[in-house]
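cron nightly-structures :: item 1 of 1
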Amino acid sequence: YGYSPRIGIKTGMIYVNDILSGNQNSFIIKIKADGSFEVKFPLYYPHEIYIRSSMYNGSVYVEPGKTSFQLFNAGNKNASSLFMGDCSGVNRDLFATVNINSFNYQKVQDNILLMSPQQYKNYLIDIKLSDSKKFDAYKKSHPVCKKADKIRELVFIFRNSAYLFEYNMMRQSAYRAKHK
């Protein structure tokens, strides 16, 4: 809701990562006058897809053969979303916890030249533990479905592993920035 055809946005994109091919497939969203859109795409396994437009950027968990519906406020990027369909509970819980991410690129950029690879790895382990604790605290006051619980924990592991591989790149970037 919050969409008006007067703003002139008629399209967006959905991006679907394909682990089988290693490609990211894109699908154009054609936005109707009421702000709604529908898109079908091939999907071989459950995972998150990414929605990108000038009104909204976010991800939605989908599964093959199942329907997902998301209502978001086009006028307020910080507003919560309403999910319906087969994966509504998973999406609700993932959306509510999407900002649990203690990694701070600027802090790393400022300190990485002083960090050995082992110190950087230890820093990342601390980040993962911090995020897991924040998620555990959230779960104490909010019920989270088992699937969203598992996905979020796997995201913490994956994200931590991905940051590990960025050590050299971040170190080189910090060195270039410092020495112009």
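cron nightly-structures :: done
The first strand starts at residue 11 and ends at 18.
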